[in-house]
Structures are given as C-alpha cells and as structure tokens.
Amino acid sequence: MMNVPALDGSRKLRAPARDFARAKAATKGVIDGPELIVDRRRHGRGVEPRIAGIGERPPPAYNSFRFRCGDMGLEGRTMGLDTNSKITTPDRYPPRQPESTTIDPLLRAGDGGRTVGFNTIPEIIDLDRYPLHQPGSEAIDALLREGRATLKHDALFSLPGFVRPEAASFMAAEIEARVPLACRHDTDRPSYDSDGKSWPAGHPRTATHLFRYHQVLNHQIPNNSPLRRLYCWEPLREFLRQLMGFETFYRSECPHLALSAKVAGEGDTDGWHFDGNDVVFSIVLKEPEQGGLFEYVPNLRTEKDENYEGVAAVFDGNRDGMRSVKLSAGDLNVFQGDYTLHRVSPVKGERKRVVGLFCYDRVPGTNFGEPYIEELRRHMPGAAPTRIS
Ligand SMILES: O=C(O)CCC(=O)C(=O)O
Ligand SMILES: [Fe+2]
Fold first, then answer.
1. Which chain residues have CB less than 5 Å from ligand 2, an ion?
2. Helices (H) then strands (E): counts for the chain
C-alpha cells in the first residue's frame, strides 16, 4: 500500500509493557479465550512494537493485545478495545456477509449484465505457465529461486500474464463499476511516514507529492468476485509465503484494506514515496493508453543509510538508477517498497489504470489502524466523518 501507516500503526506502543497491562486488565473476564497480539517487527526503519491483531492462539513469542476497528456499514459489529482501553463490543465473531448468488446491480450497471464468471482458478490464472497448484514441482521451485534473487536485486518481481486477459478485464469492469462508491484521494502527501520529528523546510522529509486516484475497499468488492477468489486461493498465499521466505504469512483480515483496488484516470498518480509496510502484492487489471508507469529506484535507502541526498536528487528530477516500467494487465507484481523510492506516473488518456492490491501479514488477524480508516472514510463519497468513540 502506499505510504499508509503500517498495519495498526495507529497503535504503535510507546510503552508496550504498560499498554499491555492495561489491555489485559480491561479485557479480563470479558473476552474468554482469545489472546491479544503485539508483534515487534520491522517497518520503515528499525523495529517497533505494534499491535498486530487478534488470534485464538498467537505464536508464543508474541505478546497480545486487542483493538477496535470502526468501519463503514459494519459499525459496532466487532472488535475489542477502544483508544481508552475500554471494551466496545465483545462479540468476537461478527456475522460474515452472505455469499451472493445474484449479480449485484452495480456490477450489472458496470459490465452490461454479464453473468458472474471466472468461478474457477484455471479460468483466472494461467496455470500452464505458473503451476501454483503443483507446489514442489520443478517449475515452481525454479520460479521461487528466480523470484528471490530478483527481489533482492531489483525490489520488484513480476509474473507477466499471471491472470488470464479475459479474467483481468472482467475484474477491471467489476472494480470500475464501484468507482462511484470509492474513496477519492486527491492530496499532497510526504514520501515518508511521520517519525514524530520536525524536519527543516526543504528537507526531503517535508517535501510533498500529489496522490490522486480512486480506491475501492475490501467490503465494496463482492464476495463472489474472481479477484477475491484469487486472493483467497491458498496455493497463492503459500507460494507468496515461500517467495518471501516467511515462516508465517496470513491474509489480512482488515474489512477495508485486506483486498482493495486502485483506479487511476487522466492525471491521476501516486507521488514519490516509500511504503510503510514491507511488501505490496499487486495485480494489474487494466493498463492506461499512456502514462501510469511504475517508476522506482531500487534500494535508494538502506536500513542504515537514509540517503537523503539521493532522495532529494530524485525529487529534483535526477533519473540515475531509475527504472520506469509499464506493468501490464494480468501481471502479478511483488514489490518491496520500504527501501525503494517509487511512484506511479500520471495516467494519460481515457482508459483507466486499474490495479488490485492484496494485503498479507506475518501475524494472523491483522487490521489497519483506525486513524487511517477514518481518513479513508473522509474520502468516501458523501461521507461525513463518523468517529464512534
Ligand atoms: O499502483 C501501483 O502499482 C502500486 C502503487 C503503490 O506504490 C502503493 O500502493 O503503495
Ligand atoms: Fe507504494
């Protein structure tokens, strides 16, 4: 995801031990069973404790914590702990949205009334080229080896033609039909997540860039969407886990951002930024006529060196070491954007750029923090801010 706070960045713990004790006291006798999870993981630079999610049986290495996530249309349904460590709603298992069997009117409006298709993975993924259903096969092992080496060097590993063209255009139509409901981002933002310090004017940390696009959120994407089917397909998650070399790897459970999609029309763009989370998994569903290039400078900064000079030079137009690639419809892209400065150049022409974004985490039950969700809510059409607490 762009430079959103890392998962649950809203609740980065300054004093983890105290917060943890407060959480434990607040939940005593109210929540039976589940543990609260705080993990310590790298995001941006360094290691910070932060709330990661909720799970019945968290890995023993993790402390635990529970938090609340308000969400549009699902308010009051779920989640545990508000910002004052009070239990808000102790219902642990919110009802799931029923699987819809009929075509929803929005989709009908968007694609001329086709019946929902692409119900099976072989219709969606080119399994001949990428036999993810055969883990451990020579082809998959070779792909994993190539991917790991490429990621190390380039920060971007693309699997061209991963999604079949007809499935990609079906998914794009499904997403575009939801643009009237989508968040509209149109703001200048800095390239970095805040580090809480104040930086002098002219420093790259204070420079802002235009971010402008529509964003369709998880709960706005139908349950029977082939895009969701793909996201929920276990062999894909397992393949990506192995590619990243993580021991554990879970789909996010964020009602808003687990699965989302971005739609960029004429002039829309993502400004230069570093991602707040480690990895973005995207699938391009539709390419624009021109522009919408993915531009990046691999490993411009490192864990030890911010290289502000190099960053400032890119802002000033230096293109040394920069890659400028046209990601094509159907490509699956794995991108490590925490050390690699990147942007999406402005889209030109009538045809939109549509990208699906898949969100995972190394701990189960992850959600994004409420402040960021509130921010999204402010960008929803006709939505007034609705803080619950
Ligand atoms: O739209 C894309 O291709 C990726 C954009 C991006 O950098 C992000 O969402 O963080
Ligand atoms: Fe990004």
1. 2, 275, 337
2. 9, 17
Ligand 1 atom showing the smallest separation from residue 213 Cα: 1
Reported as a pLDDT band with limits 50, 70 and 90, residue 367 is confident
User: Which one of the ligands is nearest to 1 CA?
Assistant: 1
> Ligand 1: residues whose CB is within 6 Å?
1-2, 262, 270, 275, 280, 282, 294, 337, 342, 344, 355
| Residue nearest ligand 1's atom 6 by CA | 2
* This prediction's pTM: 0.72
- What is the atom index within ligand 1 of the atom nearest the CA of 355? 1
Question: Could you say which architecture CATH assigns to the domain 105-378?
Answer: Sandwich (2.60)
Q: Is the pLDDT of residue 384 over 70?
A: no
Q: How far apart are CA 222 and CA 219, in angstroms?
A: 7
Residue-range domain boundaries for the chain: 105-378
Ligand 2 centroid distance, CA of 271 (Å): 9
DSSP 3-state of 315: helix
How confident is the model over 255-269, as pLDDT tens digits?
Answer: 999 999 999 999 999
Share of the chain above pLDDT 90, in %: 55
Q: Strands, DSSP E only, in 217-278?
A: 250-251, 259-264, 270-273
CB 210 within 8 A of CB 26: no
Question: First CA to last CA across the chain, in angstroms?
Answer: 27
The contacts of residue 32 (CB under 8 Å, 6+ apart) are none
Q: Would you say residue 51 has pLDDT above 60?
A: no
Assign residue 94 a region (left: φ > 0; alpha: ψ between -120 and 50; beta: otherwise).
Answer: beta
- Cα(127)–Cα(149) distance, rounded to whole angstroms? 22
Residue 337 CA to ligand 1 centre (angstroms):
9
Output DSSP code: residue 218: G
Alpha carbon 52 to its chain centroid, in Å, reads 15
Question: Residue 201 phi/psi, 5° resolution?
Answer: -55, 140
Atom of ligand 1 nearest to the CA of 273: 7
